[in-house]
């Protein structure tokens, strides 16, 4: 890190993401309670905060229209180093519309939606696209108000693809990084997107672009070469002599946070209760947002086939599925929820009895400690994402399994398939027979092999932490910016 010796302070880092890492709840008129929600992004960046004076910029998760209320919330958030972006009326078309109705499926190889309202003279598409640009401008306005010379701006994810361009247009000297948390698809899928070139051109204005896996980075570079006609090299993308560095930074978790939680008396108590509750049965666990990319219906179909073909296991195994509600404003998400509920009903109807239910399905999240207790007592973790940037759930399971050494059954289409593939049983979630066989293999795996597989993955999760991810990205960005400063001086 290049310290700013001239003014004797740590360099400032603005981390910009759609959501702030806090949840705001209204507790009364002009008063708010705020809680930090420590996902991979937050824990990754807590590690780099020692070197940087970090501030978070993002939507606070609540709609606030009144100016007095906005000021009150901004003041409370400032104490947590958070700066809110109020999106107001553009939010629905930007977030539910363009981000999650269009970009999210495209990035996950699912193609553009076929809904009637999208076919209606493209009007909805245009409205959503305009809202997306407007929202990116609102982010820019807030950054400009808070920007000081020398600040580094790290933009996150597909919500903010116009931000690199807007930032560089405002001030070409701003150091800009952009990281994509989702996959990047093959150019054949991406090129169906009507606004394909503008989005690519904008992110290419950043100094550093980061992806979870080599495949996503490679897809991105070849998409740029095919759509924009620019040159792709091992460094990244070259356009008229200017290089945009494209590199791979696989995210991780804060493993010690999970290991420590499993030692807490409260968590041990919860683990004992769960063991008692499922005595005599093996527990298969699923933890996903209720998103079509997570392949929950495919998971249930694989489990159904397993029960069909292995009657001896019917009373001896349960699948506990936490399906956290998400993006209810997007029609496709409501559809997948109905589909999932139908399958739970069918499978429990077919194989359940008065005393036992094969699937315990929960349409809600659980608190962190309880989640750790579930991870720790599970015999098998079943991750069947159809596409997934990384999938941190699989890392968290490994971190909590030091005692049990359970088996991870993992989709080959999750980024984690490339990092934890050595210890996991990899499956193609579309292949119901393969999922069913992997469940059987996992449940019957001898202790010695489980131990061996767990050891490999645990070692990986411990060393490839969220802190390493944040540090690696920031040091690469710093290096690039230092090099370009030298070139400018020359
Ligand atoms: C995106 C990409 C990429 C889940 N249920 C509960 C709960 N969770 C927490 C987990 C985990 C997080 O949510 C989910 O992270 P994932 O990585 O599995 O998936 P996405 O939300 O889709 O994340 C993904 C990630 O960004 C990072 O780049 O890996 O591919 O799609 O941390 O623990 N937490 C609690 N209760 C729950 O019920 N407390």
Automatic annotation (TrEMBL):
GO terms for biological process: trehalose biosynthetic process. The keyword Membrane does not apply. One of its GO terms (cellular component) is cytosol. Keywords: Glycosyltransferase, Transferase. It comes from the Eukaryota. Its EC number is 2.4.1.15. GO terms for molecular function: alpha,alpha-trehalose-phosphate synthase (UDP-forming) activity; trehalose-phosphatase activity. In the C-terminal section; belongs to the trehalose phosphatase family. In the N-terminal section; belongs to the glycosyltransferase 20 family. This is alpha,alpha-trehalose-phosphate synthase (UDP-forming). The chain holds residues 2 to 491 of 836 of the full protein.
């Amino acid at each position: 890190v290049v310290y700013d010796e001239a003014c004797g302070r740590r360099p400032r880092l603005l981390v910009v993401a759609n959501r702030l890492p806090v949840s705001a709840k209204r507790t009364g008129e002009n008063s708010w309670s705020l809680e930090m929600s420590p996902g991979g992004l937050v824990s990754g960046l807590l590690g780099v905060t020692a070197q940087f004076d970090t501030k978070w910029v993002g939507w606070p998760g609540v709609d606030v229209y009144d100016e007095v209320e906005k000021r009150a919330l901004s003041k409370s958030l400032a104490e947590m180093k958070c700066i809110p972006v109020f999106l107001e009326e553009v939010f629905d078309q930007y977030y539910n519309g363009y981000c999650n109705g269009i970009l999210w499926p495209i990035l996950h190889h699912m193609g553009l939606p076929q809904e009637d309202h999208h076919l209606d003279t493209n009007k909805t598409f245009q409205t959503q696209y305009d809202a997306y640009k407007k929202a990116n401008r609102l982010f820019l306005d807030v950054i400009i108000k808070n920007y000081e010379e020398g600040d580094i701006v790290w933009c996150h994810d597909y919500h903010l693809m116009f931000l690199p361009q807007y930032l560089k247009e405002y001030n070409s000297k701003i150091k800009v990084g952009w990281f994509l948390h989702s996959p990047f698809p093959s150019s054949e899928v991406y090129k169906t997107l009507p606004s394909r070139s503008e989005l690519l051109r904008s992110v290419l204005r950043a100094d550093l672009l980061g992806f979870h896996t080599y495949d996503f980075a490679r897809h991105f570079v070849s998409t740029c070469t095919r759509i924009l006609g620019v040159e792709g090299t091992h460094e990244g993308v070259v356009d008229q002599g200017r290089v945009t560095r494209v590199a791979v930074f696989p995210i991780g978790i804060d493993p010690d946070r999970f290991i420590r939680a499993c030692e807490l008396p409260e968590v041990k108590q919860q683990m004992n209760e769960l063991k008692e509750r499922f005595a005599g049965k093996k527990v298969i666990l699923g933890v996903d947002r209720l998103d079509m990319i997570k392949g929950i219906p495919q998971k249930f179909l694989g489990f159904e086939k397993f029960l069909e073909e292995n009657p001896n296991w019917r009373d001896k195994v349960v699948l506990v599925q936490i399906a956290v509600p998400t993006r209810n404003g997007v029609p496709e998400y409501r559809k997948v929820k109905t589909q999932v509920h139908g399958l739970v009903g069918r499978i429990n109807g077919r194989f359940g009895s008065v005393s036992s239910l094969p699937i315990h399905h929960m349409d809600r999240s659980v608190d962190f400690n309880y989640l750790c207790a579930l991870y720790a007592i599970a015999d098998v973790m079943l991750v069947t994402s159809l596409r997934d940037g990384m999938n941190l759930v699989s890392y968290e399971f490994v971190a909590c399994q030091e005692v049990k050494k359970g088996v991870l059954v993992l989709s080959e289409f999750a980024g984690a398939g490339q990092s934890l593939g050595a210890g996991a049983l990899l499956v193609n979630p579309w292949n119901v027979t393969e999922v069913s066989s992997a469940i059987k293999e996992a449940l019957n795996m001898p202790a010695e092999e489980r131990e061996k597989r767990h050891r490999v993955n645990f070692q990986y999760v411990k060393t490839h932490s969220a802190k390493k991810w944040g540090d690696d990205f920031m040091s690469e960005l710093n290096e690039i910016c230092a090099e370009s400063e030298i070139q400018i001086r020359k």
